[in-house]
Amino acid sequence: MKNKYFYFMSCMLLFTLSLYATEKEKPKFKLGGALRFNYNFSDWNRGHRDRGGDFGFDVLRFTLAGSYKNILLDADYRFYSKDYGGPMLKYGWIGYRFNSKNQIQAGVTGVPFGIQPIGSHNFFLQITYYVGLEDDSDMGIKFVHKGEKWDYAIAFFKNADELLFGSDSEVTDDRYGYDVAGRNKEINQFNLQAFYKWGTYTLNKFGGSAEFGQLYNLDTRNNGTHYALALHYELYWKNLSLKTQLTTYAMYPKNKEGEERNVITMTAYGAPYLVAAKANIYTVGAGYTFNIDSKLIEKIQVYNDFGCLQKWDKLLKNSYQNVTGLLVVAGPVWLYVDYALGKNHAWLGPDWNGFGPGGASESWHARFNMNIGYYF
User: Could you tell me the domains of the chain?
Assistant: First the structure.
């Protein structure tokens, strides 16, 4: 009887341990996302002036984060309207976590350049975004280290997020981050970035970013080059945040004879435009958060972000952006209210190639924008 009891208990113990091990080995997934709507009143839009702006669908997005042992997964897929590029993958990568400080990522992963994850507080991001130097993801491999004092990343990107694989295929327009397009393609890009952090009650982050790569021309079948360098500083003190960045970049495409080389085509959101091939960028932004003791509203952040795109070619007109606004957080609901000013700016004015040659009017234009979203 004792032997049977011992045998039974042993089997139960092994079964329990087996279940525990099985549960422990199961992959873990977390699904998230957002549904957003947008109101837009642009002073240069005659229809907006007649009808008081437009209110419509912005995006439905889904995020997926997963892990199995030390294997990682992270992805963000978005559904915009057809005119804004339609469905697109913002990022999606598979990685391996060596320890709590080090991991490697492969796939469409974020380009480590500039203040991370973004250099702004507002809905429109900074002016660096519109020339492909903020919140961009490309196809490659990246090593990331996050320590107590130092954060750094080293990456190699074979190309931008590629959707067509023909020998003469141009970059498609359905993408979130801006990439070189038209008859040129970004290839063989290396990125190096480092941040030094200090302070207890006041957190300071000072860093630098470097980017070097090639530009393949589909007509000449020759490789040009491009590079970008940046110094950035962040300060976080109590409810105050400050973000500053100095950037310089240059692109040297090997175009056909007679084609312009002082501007280059870039694309995102289903709509390509011209950008200055060489420029300096100056950005600064400040925000202050008010914690609200309310059952509905958790906090309100007020901010102002300014950016200037200073083009090397004096025949091209400089571009400017300034966004003043606030973010209201009520649980899963976020509301951005922005008053955005732009000069020679594709999205803030009538001059779609404003980031390239500039506009004819040389005047500032305003856009009042409200974006409300439910995040889950």
Answer: 28-375 (2.40.160.10)
